[in-house]
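Supplementary Methods, section 5.1.

A reviewer requested that the exact input to the structure prediction be made available. We therefore reproduce it here, unchanged from the version used in the analyses.
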Amino acid sequence: MEKVCVLGAGSWGSALAMVLAENGHDTLVWTHRAEQADEINDMHTNKKYLPETVLPSNLHATSDITKAATHAETIIVAVPTKAIREVCEKLKAELTKKILFVHVSKGIEPDSLKRISEILAESLPAENVEEIVVLSGPSHAEEVVLHHPTTVTATCANIDAAEKVQDLFMNQFFRVYTNDDVIGVEIGGALKNVIALAAGITDGLNYGDNAKAALITRGLAEITRLGVKMGGNPFTFSGLTGMGDLIVTCTSVHSRNWRAGNMLGQGMMLQEVLDQMGMVVEGVRTTKAAYQLAEKYGVAMPISTELYSVLFNDVEPKVAVDALMLRMKKREIDDMKH
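The structure derived from this sequence is encoded token-by-token as follows.
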């Protein structure tokens, strides 16, 4: 049995905490909202994020960051990308021992262009960090809590640390592979949200399955181009954390990014969409980072670029999609590489 703390009581953090508790680990969830901690402890529910789910009675919650830090041998970071630095600032003064960190968020910080493992390494005291592992893959919280079969990947340059995380989470419905390509896994996990927003837009425009299949395929090509240029393994992008995560996020009604794109395609304004969603849509912030990364590395990312123009330059979605269709002639396979 491991003492584990999950930072963040959103849908994904809660679902992973449920897996850990059901696996017999001493699991504590930290939330910055005391009333949410009380609900988890007293009612065994988290109705805002998982309205139909009864949480295990051995799963506990706290809003006290000191209690969270002192409880844990392993910390799962499940807060939105934009909140990671703030949470680390609260956490670092409370750390008194080496802890294995696992992050499950999917994003890239605009402007600094840091991946999440880089943000964590820079924000936490090195003497308190055993390793940083990425847990990623095609996984919706709504299905995990129903024990639907789910497969993800634990990734770390230190494969022993990845295998420890594999052991923590693995059970008959939650399968975990290992990988050592941190760059590829983090880039695939972050940028699939960008493509999912674009896929939602094509659905909102009623452009059909042909358009969405093309967008997913070409989206994978530009994710791979960038990821390989940044040092990722090209094979990672055809795996669970690349193609697998991209497919599920672009096609599922559970996907916040797809739903947000769908509303944009139907003519809603971005702020109106975000207000209606009431939850973080990681792809919006990551689109800005993707646009900046494309410029920094000199990589052609036409879908990300057109989506940037929709989100931040008020270009109409139909105009952006038409611009993609009217791009100059190219060879498909050569275009995968350049």
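The chain has two domains: 3-180, 190-337. These observations are discussed further in the main text.
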